[in-house]
Amino acid sequence: MQIPDSIFTSYGFSKNESEIIPFGTGLINHTWKIVCGGRSYILQKINTKVFKVPVYISTNIHEVATYLKEKNPGYLFVAPLNTISNEQMVYTEEFSGGYYRLFPFIEGSHTIDVVKTPQQALEAASQFGKFTKLLAGFEVFNLQITLPHFHDLSLRYLQFTEALQTGNPKRIEASAALISFVKAHKDIVDQYESILINPAFALRVTHHDTKISNVLFGADDKALCVIDLDTIMPGYFISDVGDMMRTYLPTVSEEEADFSKIEVRDEVYKAIVQGYSNEMGEALSDEEKKNFFYAGVFMIYMQALRFLTDHLNNDVYYGAHYPNHNFVRAGNQVVLLQKLLEKRSILE
Ligand code: GN1
Ligand code: MG
Questions:
Q1: Ligand 2 center to residue 28 CA distance, Å?
Q2: Closest C-alpha to ligand 1, atom 17
């Protein structure tokens, strides 16, 4: 994908003098590393098919950044840089139109794609816990809803049942085993619905995309901060803890097609609970604390549903790099969920 010259000039750079490197493994936005004048930056084009109102993203980031700067000036929060005309994003009609924003690249930082040690999980979980903790005094309902119903499991289930009606008939037929697994575990949706009406569960400032590549690490496996702030919205702790479990517990990612490699690491589970509790332990209710295990089940099940639904709908959301890509991703998540459920009595 090409980047229009005007994006560079908006930030006072020249495209000719910039090195442009595709960056990261995100599925939704386009991301590049830009090196210019001896400094590095991260440039992103926002996917407006997914984020329909990009200004909601920049408003949220600005509000949260302002709050944190006032209350916790030492906290590293990577907000986008302003353009030379003091805007937080650039819109251009060029190349079919789009919104772009530029972040400073944190020198000396790196990201990882798979958790190798419990220590990395502990560090990351502490960072996500700390993020929500530091924003406890921020009025959560002032956040704009950048993705309506993002982690609404009832809606995700409904979208799945709709895909069974309107999706690709061949794919529906070939997905029978996955479909019946998902239907047989509908109690996971029922439990989510009971959480929604339980006053012991609080809506807090939630990150909603806590995968390990959304944590910047420095030297010695020390986590520096969290990144990817587009989905900061009111949410439940099961979203953030659950997505950590989903993405940190196994030694392989959701892309792994050899499902025999999918294992749940007990020490990583403990590290997530420990790291998150170190920051959020006092804020969580007893009822919430009893739901750490459910958090993992909830998020893995939701991601299985989302990949499967997208497969049945011909990959309209996630896209596919090879035939049946989302079918494989859904199968991966189902195996991960089975492996986690097998360990319920040890882990819970
Ligand atoms: C998407 O783009 P990325 O990789 O940060 C998705 C997440 C999924 C993830 C699965 C806005 O995140 O919810 O968990 O893919 N984000 C959106 O890899 O749909
Ligand atoms: Mg993301």
A1: 7
A2: 28
Percent of the chain with pLDDT over 70: 100
**What residue ranges of the chain are covered by domains with CATH 3.30.200.20?**
5-104
44 lines ligand 1 (CB under 6 A): no
d(CA 68, CA 232): 14
Fold of the 5-104 domain: Phosphorylase Kinase; domain 1 (3.30.200)
Distance 50 CA to ligand 1 centre (A): 10
| DSSP bridge pairs for 44 | 31, 101
> What atom in ligand 1 is closest to the CA of residue 230?
11
27 lines ligand 1 (CB under 6 A): yes
Query: Distance, CA 289 to ligand 1 centroid (Å)?
Result: 26
Distance from C-alpha of 41 to C-alpha of 17, rounded to nearest angstrom: 14
Specify the amino acid at residue 285: S
Q: What is the model's pTM? A: 0.95
Strands 215-217 and 223-226: antiparallel
Q: Is the CB of 255 under 6 A from ligand 1?
A: no
241-255: pLDDT as tens digits: 999 999 999 999 999
Distance 265 CA to ligand 1 centre (A): 23
- What SS3 state is found at 244? helix
- Judged on CB neighbours under 10 Å (0-12, 13-18, 19+), 21 is exposed
Q: Which CATH class is domain 118-347?
A: alpha beta
